[in-house]
Input
Amino acid sequence: MQKLIVAGLLSFSISVLTGASGGTPEAPQKPLRILAIGNSFSVDAMQHLYQIATNAGFKQVVLGNLNIGGCSLERHWKSASEQLADYNYRKNSSSAWVDRKGSVIDDGLLDEDWDFISIQQVSGNSGLAETYNSDLDNLVEYINSKKTNPDAKIMWHMTWAYQSNSKHQHFPRYNSDQRMMYQAIVTAVQEKIVPNKNINFVIPSGTAIQNMRTSYIGDTLTRDGFHLSLNLGRYIAGMTWLKTLTGVLIDDISWVPNADEVPPELLPVIKEAVNNAVKTPFSVTESSFKTK
Output
């Protein structure tokens, strides 16, 4: 797994982070263009990504999110193959998200020369390896046939386990056990995504969230038992995306979406959880911040 992440980071860091003027990772010079093909979990993960990236020094950030609520790989492939206009295509190139409902998948894929394109499984199936099947292969093949940047990397967004008291209808698939669900997600990704030569690397959002849950914050990172909390949970996921995709140092990032929910003293806890997730994406690293 480490080689997958490193390969993605090396190729991107050489062409984007250093830039034509020899900039450093703290002051990237070239555009950062990321498209997600997902659902409400990709909305959560990307919500604060623009502000996080610009605070890290990126001058040109373009984000896209082709999402359908509760969308599985099976439905993504159906929508792509039949060109169904059932996506909400969200775009952010100036710090605000603009929605374009009733879009087809090509509206997003062809809109920019994306550097990264992410895909993911619907949360209830995320730990069921048998659902990572021909729908996944067909979707990846379709993306590769349509992307306008031949060097665009396809990445897998590894999502998070539900909160331990979640009432989600699919939680019983994992005996309503958060640890079991997390391990099932990890196992499915190791079995089906890591060996897939058409997927360049994994974004370990689920591990970053699980790492954070071992801190004094505890199991409080969702707003309804499965979607991330609007500020803290989403911020952790966004930080994980930036760190994984670009390799930039996140130590000096200071922007937060809400100072009450994400106070300055919490930033070291978050950054430790994110850094450890990127370093060790398939296992939980206990937080060193057990108490305030």
Observations:
- The radius of gyration is 18 Å.
- Confidence is low (pLDDT under 50) at residues 1-27.
- The chain is about 40% helix and 15% strand.
